[in-house]
Amino acid sequence: MAQVHIQAPSSSSVAGEESRRLPNPVRVAARESMAGGRLLDSHSLDGISQVYGASKSQEGRRATISSALELEGTVSYDGDLTHFVANNLQMKIKMSSRGSLDDTEPTSSSMSSQHSVRGKTADIPPVDPQVLRDLERLTTDVAQRVDQMLRALNSAIQNMTALSVGYIQTYRDAVDSLGESVDMSIKGMYTLMARCEELDRSMQPVHLLAKQIREIKRTLEIFEAVCK
After folding, report:
1. In which region does residue 38 sit, left (phi positive, over 0), alpha (psi from -120 to 50) or beta (all else)?
2. Would you say 31 and 51 are in contact if contact means Cβ atoms under 8 Å apart?
3. What InterPro entries does the record point to (predicted)?
């Protein structure tokens, strides 16, 4: 049975990893296993071995596991011993520990939230029935006062509306009477003008008589002058 020794990463191991070329199925399976940010376990190694065994059935399980390990670091052989140098071991350990912390954090946060909710519930004092009755009484009183205010406002608005209607009717009557008075005055003026025209026509003989009188007077004055 082969033994695996894990050593700290070095620059030579990183260069060795970049220089290696692995079969396509193994590289694809390894990339899928690294996508979750976790180290390869026995199940992932078995999966890679199955993929690799389907494409290369003539090779043994040891070659498959060695090829899978080569994706995570540098593999060397010394007889029956297999030496494995992991790449970026510290980062993988941090990622594994971070995943476990993330799994435990929701539980602790949920417990703290439950405790906070219980504390808030315990801080709420019980409701006093007398306070509720007083609140109901005050609410009823306020509702009655608001109802009375609305009724008084409605009555005042109705009175103002009646006064406005009375003012409008009075103004209309005054305008109507003023129009009638002006109409009668105009009619009287036209009547007076017609009477004056009739009087002027009837005074025509008087004008002739006055002319004759002036002529007679002038003749008398001439006779008086001759007699002197």
Report:
1. beta
2. no
3. BORCS6 (IPR019314), BORCS6_C (IPR046465)
Evaluate whether 80 touches 39 at the Cβ level (below 8 Å): no
* Average pLDDT across the chain, whole number: 73
Could you give the CA distance from residue 162 to residue 155 in angstroms, rounded to a whole number? 11
Cβ neighbours of 69 (radius 10 Å): 20
Average pLDDT over residues 181-202: 93
pLDDT for residue 29 is more than 90: no
The CA–CA distances, whole Å, from 159 to 54, 99, 148, 228 equal: 102, 81, 17, 98
| Distance separating alpha carbons of residues 84 and 66, to the nearest angstrom | 9
Could you tell me which residues come within 8 angstroms of residue 48 by beta carbon, excluding any fewer than 6 positions away? 26, 29, 30, 33, 40, 64, 67, 68
∠ CA 57-59-60, nearest 5°, is 105
Q: What is the pLDDT of residues 40-54, one digit of tens each?
A: 444 444 554 555 454
Q: Please, which pLDDT band fits residue 93 given cuts at 50, 70 and 90?
A: confident
Q: Which residues contact 49 (CB under 8 A, 6 or more apart)?
A: 61, 64, 65, 68
pLDDT at position 176: 94
